[in-house]
Design brief:
By secondary structure, this protein is an alpha+beta fold. The chain has one domain (about 10-180): Aminohydrolase, N-terminal nucleophile (Ntn) domain (Glutamine Phosphoribosylpyrophosphate, subunit 1, domain 1). About 30% of the residues lie in helices and about 30% in strands. A four-stranded antiparallel β-sheet has the order 1-4-2-3.
Length: about 190
């Protein structure tokens, strides 16, 4: 066995100066849940910064890269690929530019109906940039006509089936959700 493997680790931090530093230490403590890659997206005054890459948390982040992740909101992810390859574009958090602004999503789990949903979205004109099932959730949120991020996320999550936990932020709000059965940890 090359290394002990589990599932992805996700973390969200809000309302704390230097949120990315807290996210970094959280990812470090979740390292056992994914060793293929790590990433953090931080938000400050409507702007976002991203650092992500292949390898362990200690390989991806340097003091300089952490200092560049400013703001009081951060979303982080440790990757263990179950769906989607180890290609660079599959590193999370997934960042998407939507009508409502930037959306950062860190996802752990498997969506059993992701392929079916993806095919429907592509027939409707969606263009996918990754091979991850996480991107299906992003498209469902972005296409929703609900008024708030919470309502759009709730609607999107009603459409997906499987075991998952995720953290989402647009820089103004931080949301956390898990599948109805609670198969994937989220605390």
């Amino acid at each position: 066995m090359k290394s002990w493997r589990e599932e992805c680790g996700v973390i969200g931090v809000a309302g704390i100066p230097s949120a990315a530093e807290i996210a970094y230490f959280g990812l470090y403590s979740l390292q056992h849940r994914g060793q293929e890659g790590a990433g953090i997206v931080s938000f400050e005054e409507g702007q976002h910064s991203v650092v992500k890459g292949a390898g362990l948390v200690s390989d991806v982040f340097t003091p300089e890269s952490l200092a560049a992740l400013r703001g009081d909101t951060a979303v982080g992810h440790n990757r263990y690929s179950t769906t989607g390859s180890c290609r660079p574009e599959n590193q999370q958090p997934l960042v998407s530019h939507c009508l409502g602004g930037v959306l950062a999503v860190a996802h752990n789990g498997n969506l059993v109906n992701a392929w079916e949903l993806r095919q429907g979205l592509e027939r409707d004109g969606a263009i996918f940039q990754t091979s991850m099932d996480t991107e299906v959730i992003v498209h469902l949120i972005a296409r929703s006509r609900e008024e708030t991020l919470v309502a759009r996320t709730q609607k999107a999550l009603r459409a997906v089936h499987g075991a998952f936990s995720l953290v989402i932020s647009d820089g103004r709000r931080l949301l956390a959700a898990r599948d109805r059965q609670g198969f994937r940890p989220l605390c």
